[in-house]
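User:
Can I borrow your eye for a moment on a structure tokenisation matter? Would you put together a sequence-and-structure record for a protein of your own picking? Please set it down just below, with no commentary around it:
AI:
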Amino acid sequence: MPTNFTAGPVRVRVPATSANLGPGFDALGLALGLYDDVAAEVSSGGVRVTVTGQGAGELPDDDRHLVVRAMRAAFDVLGAHPAGLSVECVNRIPQARGLGSSSAAIVAGVLLARALVTDGEQRLDDSDALRLAAEIEGHPDNVAPCLLGGFTLAWSESTGAQAVSLPVAEGVRPTVFVPAERGFTATARAALPATVPHGDAAFTAGRAALLVHALTADPTLLLPATADRLHQDYRAAGMPGTSSLVSGLRLAGVAAVVSGAGPTVLAFDEPPAGFPVGTDWQIWQLPIDVSGARVARGRLGHAERDPVAAGRKS
């Protein structure tokens, strides 16, 4: 049966995410109110990608772009083969900082491809979209909150990734500290040992369970709940500024963690007045995104094309 494509463009807004949240390595994630807007439509031939904002002039403008690669993967699942694609990206999520820029691109690509196929949602439902996005990314901890919004718990079965989203308790006020330097997930993962002591694994499992309770019911427990012995200490030597800021915030009573693979720091509250953050960090207060990725018909409007980071307060 031939594939029918929708007429005209579709667009998607995808949120930034923070994964791990301390002890929840490769499992826990949080969607944040900082967004990339991406639009795409089927063209008569070739691939053209334009990028505004974060990554402009650096990211590829052809089939190598991660949004296009994710679209191609989804089109393969759908058995669809468009003659060409035109993609417009307005990026506000910093690249390679631990705020889920790659997951946002992957989720955007999967959802755009699905929306461009007339019966795409029937042939690739939300569960399928999550599994495909996690397969492309390699782990589900960022793609899950990007797709679902809120605070997510993700895991993998033999059939692929699965996730649930839970509401976050009132009083949780995420603040991110974003440095100028970049970090890369592959480098951060290479710093991890093949095995960890049983006591450290048991400690971290208990804190991960406590974190679910703290984020959904009792934020007063966030400081002990975000303690980790599984990955952050092993990565500290490669991110000394990040490690120092996390330690300083925690000593000041703020529940702070490395955001994803870093080097951004995520705190679950504002630092106390007079805390010496230094000048090397951009500090943004971000709301929790509760909706996840949102798809609509039509081109990007004036508001979506504004590259200023919507949703953040500095």
